[in-house]
Each structure stands twice: as C-alpha cells, then as structure tokens.
DNA sequence: CGCAAAATTGAGAGTACTCAAGCTTTGTGG
DNA sequence: CCACAAAGCTTGAGTACTCTCAATTTTGCG
C-alpha cells in the first residue's frame, strides 16, 4: 500500500461487508493519498471524516467533497489506477481499503450490488454539489451545506440541530466555491437573522430555523 | 422500456461490447428519459450526442453534462433505479441500453472492467466540470469548454480546430453556470481577440489560438 | 416571406472578490 | 499556568465581474 502516512493496521471483523479488506486508523490531519498516487483500491469510511480535493498550480485547494461514515471514495482511480485528487483526514478516522481485485472478483454479488449503489449515491451527491455551484448565491449555498450536513447526521441517528463541523471555514468556502470572507459574512448574516447560533466556539453550530434554511435552497430569500 | 419517445429498434452487431444490449436510434431533440423515470439500465452512445440536465422549480434547466460517442450515462439510477436527471438528444443519435441485470451478471469480466473504467472516466469528467465552476471566470470557463470539446474530437480522430457545436449558446451557458448574455459577450471577446472565429453560422467554430485558450484555463488572462 | 427561437448588445444594479487590518482561538514551550 | 506565535476567523472599503432587464438583430423553418 502506498499511503503517504503511517497507519495502524487492526484486525477487526467486517461489520458491513464480507469482502476482503484492510482496516486502519488514521489520526487527525494526515494525508491519505495525493494526486497522481496509484491507488490499490476503494476507500470506505467506518468512522470519522475525510476531505477530497485538488490543488491548483497556485497551491490553493479546491475541495470536491466531504465524506463521513458509510461513504466510499477513491473512485478517481477507477479509470487508470491513479488518483486525480488528494485525500486528507479531518479527524481521527477508521477507514477500510477495498482492493480493486476484490471488486473485480465476483464471488459476492450482494457486495457488488451494494458497491454499485454506493457509486450511484456518490454520483448523485456530486450532482447536487454541482447544481449548487451552477446558479446559487452564497447564502443559498451555505443553507444547502447546513441542510445536507444536518440530514446526513439525522440519517445516521445523531442530533440534527446541533453539531460540530469537522472542517474549517476555509474548507467550507473552498467546497462551496466562495471566498472565505464571503462565507464569513454569510455566517454572520445567518446568526443575525437567527437562523443559526454559534455555540461556544466557531465550529459548534446550533440550527434554530431549519425550515427557513430548507426553503432558502430553492427559493430566493 | 419506459422511454418518453418512440425509437426504432435495429439489429446491429455490437462493435465494442459483447454483452447484451438494445440498440436504437433517436431523432433530434427527443427526450430519452425524465427525472424520476425508472431506468432499466445504463445508456451508451454509439454516435450522436446527448445532454443531461435537471430542471429547477422555476422551469430552468441546469445542464450537468454533454455526452458523445463512446460515453455512458444514466449512472444516476444506480442508487435506486430512478433517474435524478433528464436526458435529451441533441442530434440524431444511435444509443444502446445496457440492462442492469446484464451489468450484474458476471459472465463477462472484460466488459465489466471496461464499464468500471468508464464509470471512473465519467467521474473524473464531472470533477473537472465542478473544478471549473468553483473558482473560474466566465472567460476561463469558455476556454475550458473549447479545449475539452476540441480534445475530445481529436481523441476520436476528428479535426480538432474546426467543428460544429451540437448545442445552443443557452445550453453552453447553463452548463458553464453563467448567464447566456455573459457567454455571448465572452464569445464576442474571443472573436475580437482572434482566439476563435465563427464560420458561417453561430455553431460553426474555428479555433485560431488553441494554445492561448489552453493557457487561459490555468492562468488568468 | 413571415414567424418564432436563438443570439447579440446595451445600461444599470447587485453580489462577490480582493486587499488589508484586526480580532480570536489553538497549540506549544518555558 | 502563562505568554507567544501561528492559524483561523471576522470586518471594512473599494473594485470588478456578472447578472438582470430590455431591446434589437440574426437565424432557422414552415
């Protein structure tokens, strides 16, 4: 395996898939792989979160997606084995590597089907992301971001109205395609209007008016 | 099959894949499927071109991608069988439908591998699209569009410096996430600067300064 | 030839960007 | 435990780009 980081290999029984895989834990802020790295498989997150991004020649990141428990990533490498993006861990995470040849083996059609579904889910999420970038104001983008984050928590059985973001403001800005300053201003506006409240410190958010945010995604404010 | 259009089924020998499929020809501007349609498989373009899009509640289209010969589309439906987007033919096209259960059958691992690669290629292309939308000016977006279009022609053995676009200006604008008027102005600017020339009528383009356009994608003009 | 759709052009308004400075939080070491 | 440095975040001012609305021209098709 050619990861840029050291990782602790652990022996754990697969709780979701029965297919072969390697599990490991990665600490905060470590890099999982870089653009151009040859990946030996698809990654699956069991816990924690990851950001996927590219850097342009100016050295600035452009964030393509945030991934959390249950998500797979590394599809970039399906076409020719080499990743078109970099992956960095946002918080201590447990991640599995599912080797390509396991995917290509066909003993296990149930897993295969699940994998294909997950590919479809990823694809749809990317489309959602693109749609936001196509025509929406900074306010609608942030509203969309909160709703998606909240819905994702809710789907996994966590509190949907109060949470801690695993990423920085800058990361969110790069993901939503706005300047960090603009994002900061929208945060301030949302607080002033009482849509959200920032608890304690910057990354802890309480959503006060989730319906307002949900409507904002489609209709202009 | 639940297409919104009538299509002529033809008996043709598959020239690329050996897996089961249904081939048909669709005329200009016909709709292949709508958001919410249950798709029975993945589509593959043998000739012609297709646009994939969603409509928002205001009735405006947001174009997610243009597809040409060799491309597959319809991955939207992998997650739950229902498409998250609509597909419309831009010019008379020959298209194959590869049923899901053919994909799930495993007699033919060669085809399967090709399919997975194609999934990866689509994914990378979507990422490219997203990257452009994240941080680039209208000028850079159009330069990128021309380069991608030209490179695609060149890869398939066609002339790369002179071509006819199968889509309208409005379609390009919706794909690049700019207003149609803005796009028109950028077109005019590119012509004035001698980067491109519009031959005969609007959709026939000759690229005069492909290197300038190529550089423009990364560096600001 | 005439109509409808597509494309262009102009003017004005608004949103987001950039640059710059100041403030807050986090982490490290004494 | 405190102090300092670095990173993260916020706020302000001015600019630039793109959008919207509206009118006109061009193209495509019956």
TrEMBL record, chains A, B:
Q: Which InterPro entries match?
A: cNMP-bd_dom, cNMP-bd_dom_sf, Env_Response_Regulators, HTH_CRP, RmlC-like_jellyroll, Tscrpt_reg_HTH_Crp-type_CS, WH-like_DNA-bd_sf, WH_DNA-bd_sf
Question: Does the record bear Lipid metabolism in its keywords?
Answer: no
By its UniProt entry, which Pfam families does this protein fall under? Answer: cNMP_binding, HTH_Crp_2
Quick check: keyword Magnesium in the entry? no
SMART domains linked to this entry: HTH_CRP
Chain ranges of the Cyclic nucleotide-binding domain: 30-101
GO cellular component terms listed in the entry, alphabetical order = cytosol
User: Any idea which UniProt keywords this protein has?
Assistant: DNA-binding, Transcription, Transcription regulation
Offer an example of a GO molecular function term for this protein: DNA binding
Where does the HTH crp-type domain start and stop, copy by copy? Answer: 136-211
Domain of life here?
A: Bacteria
Q: What PANTHER family does this protein map onto?
A: CRP FAMILY TRANSCRIPTIONAL REGULATORY PROTEIN, REGULATORY PROTEIN YEIL
- Annotated protein name in UniProt: Transcriptional regulator FNR
């Amino acid at each position: 395996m050619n990861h840029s980081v050291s990782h602790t290999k652990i022996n754990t029984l697969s709780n979701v898939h029965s297919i072969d895989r390697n599990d490991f834990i990665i600490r905060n802020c470590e890099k999982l792989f870089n653009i151009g790295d040859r990946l030996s498989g698809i990654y699956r997150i069991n816990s924690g979160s990851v950001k996927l991004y590219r850097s342009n020649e100016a050295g600035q990141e452009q964030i393509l997606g945030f991934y959390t428990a249950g998500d797979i990533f590394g599809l970039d490498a399906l076409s020719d084995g080499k990743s078109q993006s970099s992956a960095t861990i946002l918080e201590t995470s447990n991640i599995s590597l599912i080797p390509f040849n396991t995917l290509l083996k066909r003993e296990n059609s149930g897993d295969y089907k699940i994998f294909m579904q997950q590919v479809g889910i990823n694809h749809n999420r990317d489309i959602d992301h693109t749609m936001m970038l196509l025509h929406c104001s900074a306010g609608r983008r942030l509203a969309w971001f909160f709703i998606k984050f909240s819905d994702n928590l809710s789907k996994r059985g966590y509190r949907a109205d109060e949470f801690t973001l695993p990423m920085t403001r800058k990361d969110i800005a790069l993901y939503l395609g706005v300047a960090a300053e603009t994002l900061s201003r929208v945060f301030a506006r949302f607080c002033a209007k009482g849509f959200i409240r920032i608890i304690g410190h910057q990354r802890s958010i309480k959503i006060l008016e989730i319906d307002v945010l949900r409507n904002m995604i489609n209709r202009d404010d």
